[in-house]
Specification:
Elements: H1 3-11, H2 13-36, H3 39-65, H4 80-109, H5 118-146, H6 151-157, H7 161-189, H8 194-223, H9 229-240, E1 245-257, E2 260-269, H10 275-292, E3 296-303
Parallel strand pairs: 2-3
Antiparallel strand pairs: 1-2
Helix pairs in contact: 2-3, 2-5, 3-4, 3-7, 3-8, 4-8, 5-7, 7-8
Pfam families: Cation_efflux, ZT_dimer
Family: Belongs to the cation diffusion facilitator (CDF) transporter (TC 2.A.4) family.
Membrane topology: Multi-pass membrane protein
Length: 312
Amino acid sequence: MSETNKKGWRDNIVLFGALAANLGIAVAKFVAAAITGSSSMLTEGVHSVVDSGNQVLLLYGQRRARRPADAAHPFGYGRELYFWAFVVAILIFAIGAGVSIYEGYLHIIEPAPLSDPLVNYIVLGIAALMEGASWTIAMREFDQTRGELGWWDAIHESKDPAGFMVLFEDSAALIGLVVAAIGVWCSHYFNDPRLDGVASIVIGALLAAVAVLLAREAKGLLIGERADPAVIARARAIVAAHPGIVAVNHVRTVHTAPEMVFAAISADFDDDLSMGAAETLIETIERDLRTALPQLKSIYIRPEKSADAVTF
């Protein structure tokens, strides 16, 4: 296996783990739903199918995003991953939440006869173990990337949607399993199959909330977000440290992919510099920036008179 393929496997371990878990769980849930007639189990089966499709789309998006830049897309295709992440959020809302709420409604107005819940409990237990394993992998990978940031700040600042999307999906799945188990138990304990439909609606509402949150984060990435403030500050300091630079007017950045940043820098050059000396200085600055900050894949430096420093 080549080093590139090894890196791709390591980068996608969260997605592969989640995909394997969801495919197995979906089959088990649908079998349990067919045997017992449980609405919440059917809903959970749809949930797992949607999650499996989501992982496939994210893997597809990552592969498409790795294509090299060309004449039509001079900054590469990295943002395609952000597009597919947004599609995933829409699918969770439209299919996952929509089907769950609709199925729950049908089960309330036309309750199915109760059957032995043992199969449901067995499947839910197995699903919890598999989802828990996937969640653990996603959590471990996310912990390694968030550094000192808090959970919410790390999600908001993350430029790689695959990791936090799987984490949210797995978290929602584990909560959904608990809700499904409670729904099955309550419907038998109170001898009211409509309660199983209520559990399905609760699962749908949970998925809708997760979808809205993920869509908001994916939208920000798709529109374009600045690099980490620490990266911007480091770039400003590197430029300002060069002799011949009077002042740095602004450092504006945007992520073109999770690990690719475009930087546009405006600096006031010493008026005594000749055109040739200024060109050499720009080349030196670009080289130093790429060495210190390898995520800066495209750098544009514009000489202009001093202005009020503004950093985005």
